[in-house]
């Protein structure tokens, strides 16, 4: 970049003052300042665009690596599942329906028509078990009845003094 020190800037200013003149120098300085500002914004925009394109390329590469790893995982899961199914079919090939299944007749919680000494208790679905008592709601100020907005305003409106 151009190395401009204080002495060089002072020399450029003095030459500009002599060449341009004192009445036109402020207008020219403003114009030069705006042009330099526009150039800096343009350079910043170009840098940002280059950075975005580089990040986009990196994201595309990352996406490709993730997709390939997902395909590899899918293939390994599929091959493992097929191996398991083959092993399962080989293991269950010798089993028949004559095998002994443990009975639940001795269990006290069995369902069905078994006559045991303690039947399974029936659940009362109408009874709320976690209900909050009314006296607690009244003490805590919880509303128990629904009111319209107009009814609520009428109820809590202050009484006029007579």
Name the helicity range: 55-70%
What about the largest sheet? none
**Number of distinct helices:** 4
Taking all Cα atoms into account, the compactness measure Rg is 43 Å
Q: Mean pLDDT across all residues, rounded?
A: 81
H/E element order: HHHH
**Which shape, going by the Cα principal axes?**
flat
Structural class: mainly alpha
The strand count comes to 0
**Low-pLDDT ranges:** none
Strand content: under 5%
* N→C terminal distance: 88 Å
Explain what you see.
- There is one protein chain.
- The chain is mostly helical.
- Helices cover 60% and strands 0% of the residues.
- It is built from four helices and no strands.
- It has helices spanning 6-20, 25-92, 134-140, 149-156.
- The longest helix is centred in the middle third of the chain and has 68 residues, at 25-92.
- The chain is flat and about 120 Å long.
- The relative contact order is 0.02.
- The mean pLDDT is 81.
Q: What characteristics describe this protein?
A:
162 residues, mainly alpha, flat
Summarize the entry for a quick read.
The protein has four helices and no strands.
Could you give the topology of this structure?
Elements (H helix, E strand, L loop, with lengths): L5 H15 L4 H68 L41 H7 L8 H8 L6
């Amino acid at each position: 970049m151009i190395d401009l020190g204080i002495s060089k800037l002072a020399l450029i200013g003095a030459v500009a003052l002599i060449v341009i003149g004192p009445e036109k120098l402020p207008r020219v300085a403003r114009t030069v300042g705006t042009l330099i500002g526009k150039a800096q914004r343009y350079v910043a925009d170009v840098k940002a665009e280059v950075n975005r394109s580089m990040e986009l390329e990196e994201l595309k590469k990352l996406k490709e690596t993730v997709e390939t790893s997902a395909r590899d995982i899918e293939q390994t899961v599929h091959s493992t599942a097929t191996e398991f199914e083959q092993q399962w079919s080989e293991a269950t090939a010798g089993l028949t329906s004559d095998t002994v299944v443990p009975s639940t007749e001795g269990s006290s919680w069995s369902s069905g028509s078994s006559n045991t000494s303690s039947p399974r208790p029936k659940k009362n679905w109408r009874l709320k078990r976690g209900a909050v008592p009314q006296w607690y709601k009244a003490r805590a100020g919880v509303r128990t009845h629904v009111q319209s907005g107009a009814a609520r305003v009428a109820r809590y409106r202050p009484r006029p003094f007579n």
